[in-house]
């Protein structure tokens, strides 16, 4: 076995029993039967090892569900296969998943938190593409809310497996969630999570948003909204981002024009932050 792989597997056993903080490099090397020098040839620190474990298992999980969504040709089977594969993956990687759930609520490591957010965003993107494929125009105004609910279904029911250690009938669980999802897709009319809200999960306010990212966000919203005085104002703001020409007073007025539009409120906040108002 390659030494790096050995360290990751043995460390995972300790992390599952003790958590990240309570597990020392000394304990890891003893459990592996190697020297500290050998450990540092593979990883510069325990934090680097933890991040490597997260990358490894997150990518396995995401690859599994992404493959399932892309390779399932029959839409009638897609939602069932997606849910089943998701919970099967949690079961297969239960040790890591237990650590992931525990540590994401306790960690103050910024890189760990960022990786967790990136992972959540990737899963959300896969789910949203599946929702669009399955329900099309019928969920045009509710698809982001529905995608967020599906993530919630996964999170809540995975706790039964990973926290309460219950033996679950995955077939029954999957069929139940498929039924609930289809009912919501057909009957939901009052979404809470809009596209703008969904983007906040991708670009939180405490994250630095580049000018190019801001332009991209604006273009996405303009493609979805019919022409109004607000969209015209947003077009002008986009042009100013591309090539600054307007005074601060004009910029402030244009932002005022869009701030009360439900689809542009969050963009107005980002623009205020960008222009330092």
Quaternary structure classification: single chain
Average pLDDT, all residues: 86
**Highest-level CATH class of the largest domain:** Mainly Alpha
Instruction: Count helical runs.
Output: 14
CATH topology of the largest domain: Tetracycline Repressor, domain 2
Sketch the topology as an H/E string, one letter per element. HHHHHHHHHHHHHH
Major pleated sheet: none
Helix content: over 70%
Structural class assignment: mainly alpha
Count of separate structural domains: 3
CATH architectural arrangement of the largest domain: Orthogonal Bundle
Descriptive key words:
mainly alpha; Tetracycline Repressor, domain 2; 3 domains; 14 helices; repressor; DNA binding
Brief overview:
The chain is an all-alpha fold and 277 residues long. The chain has helices spanning 3-18, 25-32, 36-42, 46-71, 75-92, 94-104, 110-135, 143-162, 170-187, 195-202, 211-224, 229-242, 248-258, 265-275.
């Amino acid at each position: 076995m390659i030494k790096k792989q050995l360290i990751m597997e043995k460390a995972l056993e300790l992390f599952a029993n003790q958590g990240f903080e309570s597990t020392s490099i000394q304990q890891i090397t003893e459990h592996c039967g190697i020297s500290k020098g050998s450990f540092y040839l593979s990883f510069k620190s325990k934090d680097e090892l933890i991040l490597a474990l997260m990358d490894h298992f997150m990518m396995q999980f995401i690859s599994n569900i992404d493959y399932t969504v892309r390779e399932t040709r029959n839409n009638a089977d897609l939602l069932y296969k997606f849910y089943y594969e998701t919970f099967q993956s949690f079961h297969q990687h239960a040790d890591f998943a237990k650590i992931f759930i525990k540590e994401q609520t306790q960690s103050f490591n910024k890189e760990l938190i960022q990786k967790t957010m990136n992972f959540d965003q990737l899963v959300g993107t896969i789910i949203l593409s599946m929702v669009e494929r399955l329900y099309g125009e019928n969920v045009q105004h509710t698809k982001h809310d529905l995608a967020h609910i599906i993530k919630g279904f996964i999170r809540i029911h995975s706790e039964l497996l990973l926290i309460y250690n219950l033996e679950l009938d995955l077939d029954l669980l999957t069929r139940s969630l498929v039924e609930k999802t289809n009912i919501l897709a057909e009957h939901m009319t009052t979404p809470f999570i809009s596209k703008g809200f969904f983007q906040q999960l991708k670009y939180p306010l405490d994250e630095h948003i580049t000018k190019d990212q801001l332009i991209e966000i604006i273009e996405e919203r303009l493609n979805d909204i019919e022409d109004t005085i607000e969209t015209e104002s947003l077009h002008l703001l986009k042009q100013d981002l591309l090539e600054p020409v307007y005074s601060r007073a004009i910029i402030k007025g244009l932002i005022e024009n869009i701030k009360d539009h439900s689809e542009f409120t969050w963009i107005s906040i980002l623009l205020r932050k960008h222009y330092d108002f």
